[in-house]
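Minutes, project check-in

Agenda point 3 was the complex the collaborators sent over. CS summarized: two entities, 370 residues total, and the question is how they sit relative to each other. Sequences were read into the notes so everyone works from the same version.
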Amino acid sequence: MIKKNIYKWKKGRPVFIIFGLAQTALMLSAHGVRIDVVKKIPMVCIQAVYEGGDPLGFSSVSIRVPGNPPEDFQSGWTDAHGRFAFVPDRAGKWLVLVDDEMGHRDETVVEIAAEFIMGEKDLPDAEQSGQKMSPQKEDIARIPLVLRIFVGLSLIFGATGIYYWIKAHKLLRSEKKRE
Amino acid sequence: MHIADGIVSTEAVLAADAVTVGVLYLFGRKVEVSEVPKMGFMAAALFVASLIHFPMAGTSLHLGLFGLAGIILGLRAFPAVFAALFFQALIFQHGGLLSVGLNTLNMGAGALLGFFIWKLSAVPESLRALAAGFLGIMLPAFLLTMEFQLSGYGRSVFFILSIYLIAAAAEGILTLVVVGFFRKVEPSVLG
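CS then shared the predicted structure for the full assembly.
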């Protein structure tokens, strides 16, 4: 009886070996690569531009996951148009930092809702989504560029005028004293 | 050319701010009444000039006029550069508010170099104007790259300097044209 069973196993041995190898290949296959085009994935695309509107092309980007402290999620480079896309995997406030490595950098917070991750809700406009700058920056950004130039020049000429008046006043006083 | 906050260490930035206050006192004291309007106009010109941007090699460059400021104002160019940078940081976020001192040291050095070049009376005037404009940009660019290197930040020295080389050449020509204009119209403006 035992002899008969051993004979059966021996007869089926090649089949066992092939199945075993196939299983191992499935488990350890790391060299095969496949690229799929993922459609309709909830992703965030940012665009970084300079004050004049020129894009921050080929600038470094760092994405940080919401948390305390926030941890690095992704890093990379903007394209020629200053754009960068990432796929957030959880809800919260995501920190995006763009740096052209020439001294210009900016960061913003993109607020991601849980519905957006599930693909049930689209990303609202920047103003509604909570894509926030610092309060001071936000206030300043609202003022048109021409007005800001005008304000700057007014402040400089105003300061010059005050300084000029002080200097002239001092000069007049010293001249009066001499007389 | 404006360094934003958070790039160079806070200690270094604060040290640069302290040095800038000292240099401002040194070059800003005993200002004559007649110098004040010129300083104001030059500060306004510096303020507006750096808003004129042009894209280059994926970054954004702007006019500086530091060499010209040195030619017109001499040592008084340093307070004028500070005033322009302070209001730029305040209104346009060009460079951080904390980094104003460091930026003033960089760009003010360019203005002072422009002034010293302008004082080399043995050299022809056109050459002095060209060199003042050119080196008025290259010196701040060099200081900027050194600060980046020390902070372990930024692109390679060669890349940054090669980009500013083009901007400096344009600035040199512009300075030459402006000096030529003032020489014809109002020579007393030139220091």
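Noted in discussion: The first strand of chain A starts at residue 44 and ends at 47.
Follow-up: revisit at the next meeting once the mutant set is ready.
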